[in-house]
TrEMBL record:
The keyword Magnesium does not apply. Gene3D superfamilies: 3.30.70.330. Keywords: Nucleus, Repeat, RNA-binding. Its main location: nucleus. Residues 87-178 form the RRM domain. SMART domains: RRM. GO terms for cellular component: nucleolus. The lineage of its organism: Eukaryota, Metazoa, Ecdysozoa, Nematoda, Chromadorea. Pfam families: RRM_1 (PF00076). This is RRM domain-containing protein. GO terms for molecular function: mRNA binding. It is found in: Nucleus.
């Protein structure tokens, strides 16, 4: 995108000594990384741009769908109550015959570790049923891992992988966008079901504890790797 900052620059010095001195100075100083309480940087990991090596062989239908999903994410994140979960993935383009158990196994295999999956649920359309009377799949699912590293490994392995489903309909994997107000409402319902009477402050603290593990994320990433994998960076 013209006019957007890519996140790096080139500087030429008159002498080799001056360049070495500048390099030592920058390497010995820590830079203040802007705080990102909503994990907006994670959105970039699921993006694949047309024209990049990662998009090789992608169908036009998948490319158009990715563009639509990116716009939906952008709109959602305009709401300051929305944040990006570093452990929960949303997976699109599922075959209609895919089951929760099969998808869970695919995701577990993708991590290459004994990563713990705490949720794997395919969304169903109750208004449409198959020949057996079961609700039909909506073609997407949510998969939550206990740790961010396993979620990231799963995303990197499955996203746009032509051998997972079909070459024409590849997995579209992104970190899930969550609503803090919905989490707060869920916490209140859980407290009420247990007979707990919480004040507003107590409820906020309970939600804060639940979200703290979700929102914490390490921001020191290798920007060059991200740039090479995703293409030109964008602002969120």
């Amino acid at each position: 995108m013209p006019g957007r900052i890519a996140g790096f620059a080139f500087v030429q010095f008159k002498t080799r000594g001056a360049a070495e001195k500048a390099r030592e100075h920058f390497n010995s100083n820590k830079f203040q990384v802007p705080e990102d309480k909503r994990n907006l940087r994670l959105v970039r990991f699921g993006l694949i741009r047309e024209g990049t090596s990662a998009a090789k062989g992608m169908s036009s239908e998948d490319a158009a769908k990715r563009q639509r999903l990116a716009e939906v994410s952008r709109k959602k994140l305009e709401n300051l109550h929305m944040f990006v979960s570093p452990t929960r993935l949303m997976i699109h383009n599922l075959p209609l015959t895919m089951t929760d158990e099969k998808l869970k196994q695919i995701c577990r295999n993708a991590t290459g570790t004994a990563g713990m999956i705490t949720e794997c649920r395919i969304w169903k359309d109750t208004s449409k049923v198959d020949s057996k009377g079961n609700p039909r799949s909506k073609g997407f699912a949510f998969v939550n891992f206990a740790e961010h590293k396993d979620a990231l490994a799963c995303l990197q392995k499955l996203n746009n992988n032509p051998s997972t489903f079909t070459n024409e309909r590849r997995p579209i994997v992104e970190f899930s966008i969550e609503n803090l107000l919905a989490i707060r409402a869920k916490a209140r319902r859980a407290a009420n079901s247990k007979g707990e009477k919480l004040t507003g402050r107590e409820l906020s603290e309970k939600v804060r504890q639940q979200v703290s593990d979700i929102v914490v994320y390490t921001y020191q990433v290798f920007r060059l790797e991200i740039f090479e994998y995703l293409g030109q960076t964008i602002d969120w």
